[in-house]
Each structure stands twice: as structure tokens, then as C-alpha cells.
Amino acid sequence: MTHEQSDADACLLNAAKPSRVFVVGSTGYIGKFVVRELVARGYDVVSFARKRSGVGGSSSEEKTRTQLEGSDVRFGDVGSMDSLMKNGIRGERFDVVVSCLTSRNGGVKDSWEIDYKATRNALEAGKAAGANHFILLSAICVQKPMLEFQRAKLRFEKELMESGLVYSIVRPTAFFKSLAGQIESIKKGKPYVMFGNGKLTACKPISERDLACFMADCIEDPEKHNRILPVGGPGKAISAREQGEMLFELLGREPKFKNMPIRMFD
């Protein structure tokens, strides 16, 4: 074997070694799919989660480990830098940090605690662990910030871009799951719920699996580095009102809408 061949083989071996990925927000709706996709691709994944996760803390540690099978599940509080370093990072090195954190209710306090502070903790922890790439799950709606969680996300996006790390800011449109919940309500005779007049934004809903694949691609595709990445599903963008009208037509029901004031999140 020549010296050149030996060097080439060593490079291939290094390239084949799975990168270490630290995931926060791993038990969320999208987070679970991202962890599974990364595990399926052979990455060495550490999932950081609360001891009682899920809606109302309904998921036990055992259930969380089952949901995130294939990853090393560690428990703690992402809102606490001390817990994040002690229980999550544990003095180890990581290559990539993926944040799927998002506030649950979109209120002022929750938005700044999760969408900004906790996500910023993950960034600082990643830096301390030697990570050189941070992948952020953001939202397409931050383009026209009117709600507090959008402002919190935008502030963190700015700090991430100024952090010196390679960044991939993923801004997905609405998720199909969001629409699925509306379908069941409409079937029961309830109105389609939308903010304002339902024409404030338009989007192309994306499936959780497609979004998880896109986020995993951010590690491997240099074209997705140091970029803000809007992503949606197939077809043309449609407004919330148009989505509602389509659902009523498909279900053969008379359109009935409920307009929610945007100021409820202020």
C-alpha cells in the first residue's frame, strides 16, 4: 500500500465515523422525528430531555427512552446552564448541536424562556463542548414578527449568526399535524380556527418526516451551511382561510370560521 493510499483510506475512515450530535427539544413533535432520522443515518446522538416530558409531563423517563431509542437519552433542564452542562454535555465533545426547542403556549414569558434563553443555553453549551455547527428549528412566520415568540426566535437567530459557529436556520411552514386537528373539529361541527382574517400568511404544510430529513441534511450538505432555509411541502402556498375553505369543501360542510385576535399572545 502506498503512502497516498494509506492517507486516502484514513480520510475515508474518518468520514465514515458518525459525528456526535447533541439534540435539545428532542421530545417535541418534530424533535422525536429528528432524533430518529439522525440515528437511522448512523450519527452518535445524545438526546437531552426533561425527566417528565410530553404534554403535562405525561411521559416517564422509560417512555422517553423508548421514543428516542437508538440515542443516548440524558435528563435535565435546558433552562439551567448548570444542568445542561452537568447532565447533558458531561464534559464530552460534540460536533453538532440541533435545537428543536419551541415554547408550548407562545406567551410572553414562555417564549423568552424557551425560544430565546434555553436555546441560547444550548448554543453556549455547544461551544463549550467544541461543536462547530448549530442547527436551529425556527419558523417561517418570523419573517413578519407580530407575536412574542417570533420576536424571541428572531433575537436568537441574530445571536446565532454572530456566534462564529456554522449555522443552519430552518424555517418550516405549517405542519400537517396542525391541520389534522382542525379536521376532527370540523367533523364535529366546530368552526375552523384562524388568527385575524386568516389571510395574514400563506404556507405549504410539510410532513414531520420530510422536515426531519431536511434538518439531518443540514449536517451533510455544505449548501445548507450559514444560511436561513425556508422549507415547505409541495404545491403552492395557501392562506389559513384557503386551507379552511378546502377542508369544508372536502367534508361537504358549510364554511364556518372563528377568528382569534393576534393580541392574545402579547
Can you tell me about this structure?
- The protein is of the alpha/beta class and 266 residues long.
- It has a single domain (3-173, 208-232), classed as Rossmann fold (3-Layer(aba) Sandwich).
- Helix content is 43%, strand content 18%.
- The protein has nine helices and eleven strands.
- It has helices at 3-16, 29-40, 61-67, 81-89, 108-128, 148-161, 176-187, 208-220, 240-251; strands at 20-24, 44-49, 72-75, 96-99, 133-137, 166-172, 192-195, 202-203, 227-231, 238-239, 257-260.
- A seven-stranded parallel sheet has the order 3-2-1-4-5-6-9, with helices on both faces. It has a two-stranded parallel ribbon with strand order 7-11. A two-stranded antiparallel sheet has the order 8-10.
- β1 (20-24), α2 (29-40) and β2 form a beta-alpha-beta unit.
- α4 (81-89) crosses α5 (108-128) and α5 runs parallel beside α6 (148-161).
- The radius of gyration is 20 Å and the shape is globular.
- The N and C termini lie far apart (67 Å).
Q: What's the structural domain tally?
A: 1
Mean pLDDT, nearest integer?
A: 85
The run of helices and strands is HEHEHEHEHEHEHEEHEEHE
Shape field: globular
CATH superfamily: NAD(P)-binding Rossmann-like Domain
Q: Spatial order of the strands in the main sheet? A: 3-2-1-4-5-6-9
The CATH class name reads: Alpha Beta
The helix/strand class is alpha/beta
Strand elements, count: 11
* Low-pLDDT stretches: 1-17
Q: Tell me the strand percentage band.
A: 15-25%
Quaternary arrangement of the chains shown? single chain
Rounded to an integer in angstroms, the radius of gyration calculated over CA atoms is: 20 Å
Count of discrete alpha- or pi-helical segments spanning 4 or more residues: 9
Do you know the CATH architecture? Answer: 3-Layer(aba) Sandwich
Straight-line N-to-C gap: 67 Å
Helix content: 40-55%
